[in-house]
Design a protein that fits this description.
The protein is of the alpha+beta class and about 120 residues long. The chain is built from 4 helices and 4 strands; from the N terminus they run ββββαααα. It comes from Secundilactobacillus hailunensis.
């Protein structure tokens, strides 16, 4: 296999490489690759793949906006918090598991559905 050197870092790489495996230098266009995901296009050229902007994974990443949305959800569903409290009094030995399920349900339901309340339509 023929080898060549990367013009940026000087490491030896296969001659048919499009990117340096050490530094990521784009050998075809002589520019460093972008941070986005790259896919093969027409066998030689590389193009950026479009990232989904609203995937369910992105909706679950914690940030200040999400925490405000979850907080508003808990405030709007005060009856749910009261019901969880009563259930935790009855099943005292399971109180931390019940509390954990409450936190998980409040976080996931509000972010995945976009609702502000259990019985409200999506805004």
């Amino acid at each position: 296999m023929a080898m060549t050197q990367c013009p940026k870092c000087g490491h030896s790489i296969p001659a048919d490489s499009t990117f340096c495996p050490d530094c990521g230098f784009n050998l075809i266009e002589n520019e460093p690759p972008r941070a986005s995901r790259l896919v093969k296009d027409e066998g030689v050229r590389l193009r950026r793949a479009k990232q989904p902007t609203d995937s369910w994974q992105r909706r679950l990443i914690p940030n200040l906006t999400h925490l405000k949305q979850v907080g508003q959800f808990v405030v709007n569903n005060g009856w749910f918090l009261l019901a969880i409290y009563v259930i935790s009094l009855v099943f005292n030995e399971w109180r931390w598991e019940i509390f954990g399920l409450f936190i998980l349900t409040s976080y996931l339901f509000s972010l995945l559905t976009g609702k502000e309340s259990f019985w409200q339509s999506k805004k």
